[in-house]
Design goal:
- The chain is mainly α.
- The protein is 78% helix and 0% strand.
């Protein structure tokens, strides 16, 4: 048994290198003084400073944050309501619907993007002036995020004891007071975790954003994709590194919230 431990540890190190070495290379070369190529010519933070003066990058960052925040807000509301309804109410076809909810999670992004683009094309035939842009991107991201939030919140509600709500009702609390003071606080860790997960999905998404975007709705992933066509440069590395940083912080926050939830339960 002990002889297997070094081998398992070595395999774990290889897996971590395979996963994180590319990200580490991008971050390291974002501090490279060389404009082109992979030759190291010294440490510098000029590429991060220049991002502040890059109007195109600034506009893309604003669009990315606006898209992520808006879509996450509405997706969290709808996904939480969906999770609550599935957990606390019975309706015809509930079991089938619970399985169907997982379908968008497993569908490839390219299929989802093409389906949304086709849907918006049909809508444009009936609504004059409906064009691709931030509105269509927001609707697409909400569609993409709702299943993830609903699954996370519902998993949290499965761990909540319904007897607590029954006890509140027995003590005279109405449906609203029970939800406000008992159910909602129990749901909150799942809501926050699901919202942060949805925020990360929106922040990193390229395929769905690319298919549903308009001329003036460029996001950071789309900007990076278009810039890579002209060659890899440190400013692209800097942009990618910032996205990785924000995504990593979000994932760490989700893990921390789940840890607190497990400790409390």
């Amino acid at each position: 048994m002990n002889r297997r431990l070094p081998l398992a540890g070595f395999a774990s190190v290889l897996v971590f290198l395979f996963l994180y070495a590319p990200l580490a290379v991008v971050i390291v070369y974002s501090f490279n003084a060389a404009r082109y190529g992979v030759e190291w010519r010294g440490f510098t933070v000029d590429w991060y400073v220049r991002l502040l003066d890059n109007q195109q990058a600034t506009a893309a960052a604003v669009n990315t944050l606006q898209l992520a925040c808006t879509s996450t807000f509405f997706a969290t509301l709808l996904g939480t309501a969906l999770a609550y309804g599935m957990s606390r109410y019975n309706f015809p076809g509930k079991a089938l619907f619970q399985h169907v909810l997982h379908v968008p999670v497993f569908i490839p992004d390219i299929v989802m993007a093409v389906a949304l683009l086709l849907f918006f094309a049909v809508v444009r035939k009936f609504l004059a002036g409906f064009e691709l842009g931030m509105t269509t991107m927001t609707l697409a991201h909400i569609t993409l995020q709702i299943p993830f939030i609903a699954i996370v919140v519902r998993a949290r509600m499965e761990d909540c004891d319904p007897q607590l709500e029954e006890a509140a009702a027995d003590l005279g609390a109405g449906p609203w007071l029970t939800f406000r003071h008992v159910t909602f606080p129990l749901m909150m860790p799942g809501i926050v975790a699901g919202g942060l997960l949805a925020f990360t999905l929106s922040l990193d998404d390229f395929v769905v954003s690319f298919f549903t975007s308009g001329p003036a709705s460029t996001t950071l992933p789309i900007l990076i994709f278009s810039s890579v066509k002209r060659g890899l440069t440190p400013d692209i590395h800097a942009l990618a590194s910032l996205i990785v940083l924000v995504s990593a912080l979000t994932v760490v926050t989700v893990a921390w919230l789940r840890g607190r939830t497990e400790v409390k339960t």
